[in-house]
Amino acid sequence: RKEVEQDPGPFNVPEGATVAFNCTYSNSASQSFFWYRQDCRKEPKLLMSVYSSGNEDGRFTAQLNRASQYISLLIRDSKLSDSATYLCVVNVYGQNFVFGPGTRLSVLP
Amino acid sequence: GAVVSQHPSRVICKSGTSVKIECRSLDFQATTMFWYRQFPKQSLMLMATSNEGSKATYEQGVEKDKFLINHASLTLSTLTVTSAHPEDSSFYICSAKPGGGEKLFFGSGTQLSVL
To answer: With contacts defined as CB-CB under 8 Å, which chain B residues touch A49?
Structure first.
């Protein structure tokens, strides 16, 4: 089993749609969780950290369920500019960051 | 957020030559930097962890004699692809984490094309 798994994608959605990404991780000692987005041939950029209480940043909402070792990202009112690959990232303190394979999103006009 | 500068952004070279890629943390000190490789439509693959003042830690399957990493200062790590071959053509990205911080920041990547 891979350390971090994500929806295989791709997701093709119309503008304005709500889209949800799922991620699971296998290491129960994981302590930090993040969502990054990566545009084609560009570096990953931090979208948001994920906290146990859940957190929201504008149209983006992240949730963490430690018991189920599950992380989610919800994008509301999707825009064309949201088209990218979304990476789930997990870190155990003092160890490497582990990246999920990513889920590609295409928002269509 | 913290700034990580990576240079060059694109390299085209002949087979057999060596290519050096630089990764600098501009506004923080990074005792640890990470080097990744990404092939088209594939996920990031960690190649090695670069530790300031000591030897890099390579992931399984990554040849340390081919991918030379030097982390001579707290703000600079370099990756040298020695005797590059066409199969080494890829997108190479570095990242660093400010000391005490939990977030990872990336350089802008280097697209290497070996002819």
So the answer is: 102-103
- pLDDT tens digit sequence for B8-30: 999 999 999 999 999 999 988 88
Between positions 31 and 90 of A, the ones with CB within 8 A of B are 32, 34, 41-46, 49, 87, 89
- With the C-alpha atoms ordered A45, A26, B59, A95, is the resulting torsion angle positive or negative? positive
The rounded distance, in Å, linking the Cα atoms of A34 and A51 is 9
Q: How many CB atoms lie within 10 A of CB B24?
A: 19
Residues linked to residue B78 through DSSP beta bridges, in sequence order: B22, B70
DSSP structural state of residue B66: T
- Test A96 with B103 for CB contact under 8 angstroms: no
Neighbours of A36 (CB within 10 A): 24
pLDDT tens figures, A48-105: 999 888 899 999 999 999 999 999 999 999 999 999 999 999 988 767 788 999 999 9
Q: Is A94 left (phi over 0), alpha (psi -120 to 50) or beta?
A: left
Cβ neighbours around B100 below 10 Å, total: 6
Cβ distance A41 to B108 less than 8 Å, yes or no, reads no
Alpha helix ranges (H) inside chain A: none
Report helix, strand or coil for B99. Answer: coil
